[in-house]
Amino acid sequence: NPLTLRLLCMLDTQKAGLPTRRDEVYDRAIETLIRTWPAARLSRRAKVTPEALRQALAVLACWQHEHGRRTVSRKELLCELGRNLPGVKSKTRAQLAEYCVATATEHAGILIEQSPDTFAFLHLTFMEYLAAEHYIRTNQLSVLLTRRADGRYSQVIRFAAGALTQAVTSPDLADSFVRQLAEAHHLVAVGVGRAR
Asked: Which end of the chain is least crowded, N or C, by CB within 10 Å?
């Protein structure tokens, strides 16, 4: 896939070596785009940390994914980012949301303006990875379990499972999530979970 190849080339220039798992490729790519490229300088000037920007983008990705939206209008984008910037006072939300849009589009490149005032993630997999990150951070894995039969969620679930299995801080959560997915898959495979 050309995007994965491009990401691997970008990550190969770093000293940490190439990632071996797909979820790690996207995690490190997003981290690189937000933290180490010109985006980090802009976000410092706007008093938005790279972590806050990433968290707001993850909430946006989850919102878009849940609503089946590949694109959002500038108004929706500003609203969602402004609403989800952690620790921001309401009077500065609109201005900081504008900075976030500029950072994510012009400097990090994680969002693109597909047409005037219409935005999308650089690639669907960025949106899916960030949505998975949001489900993990907000402890909403049960939502993913209930949507496992919905094909739109297959990649989000894969990313969540991959990220969880590598998380040192939550091995029990990872085991439980993967076990529940496997059990559900087995039940469907033998016909127990199918509607008649």
From this structure: C
